[in-house]
Amino acid sequence: MFSAMPVPMRIYAGVPNDLPCPVTVAQGRQWLEAFSETHPLCPVPPAAPSEKREGPAAVELDEAFFRYDKQSPDVVKALTLRAYPGELLAILGGNGTGKSTTMGLISGIHRAYRGKVSVLGTAPQEVSGKIALLPQDPQT
């Protein structure tokens, strides 16, 4: 549950303390400032080189393009992405950069007009019963 929460709440969840859980952004900032006074920041060691993945990707987009209609500009342009079983992948970007549209391609809600999209080695529409997409706004 805390993986989708703001950073102060994730830190709060991972350390023993008896303070109330921050709920608002302001409370989170206050808690994080108080916490950092007694817990100095330490440099993060560099990540080890990632292992070469063997076997097929669980999710693969290869030069995928998508637009909402023929007269509209591309929302997803030449996207190449591979996610392997057990791997955690974050898709980050500002408003209107294609994050939700990319998830729509992966879940089979949208179809790329060019390029390839596969989930578990097949078209997303063929495995749609095995894919769940929970949007930020459930009304969309």
How would you sum up this structure, described in words?
This protein has 140 residues and is an alpha+beta fold. The protein has a three-stranded antiparallel beta sheet, with helices on one face. The protein has helices at 7-14, 25-38, 99-107, and strands at 59-66, 76-83, 114-119. The chain is elongated.
Topology:
Blueprint: H1 7-14, H2 25-38, E1 59-66, E2 76-83, H3 99-107, E3 114-119
Antiparallel strand pairs: 1-2, 1-3
Mean pLDDT across residues: 81
Portion of residues within helices: 10-25%
- CATH class of the largest domain, please? Alpha Beta
Return the string of H and E elements: HHEEHE
Report the span from N to C terminus. 22 Å
Number of helices: 3
Largest sheet composition: 3 strands, antiparallel
Name the CATH homologous superfamily of the largest domain. Answer: P-loop containing nucleotide triphosphate hydrolases
Query: Which structural class do you get from the secondary structure elements?
Result: alpha+beta
CATH structural architecture of the largest domain? 3-Layer(aba) Sandwich
The coarse silhouette is elongated
| Integer-rounded radius of gyration | 20 Å
Report the sheet-strand fraction: 15-25%
Tally of DSSP β-strands: 3
The low-confidence runs, each spanning 5 or more residues with pLDDT under 50, are none
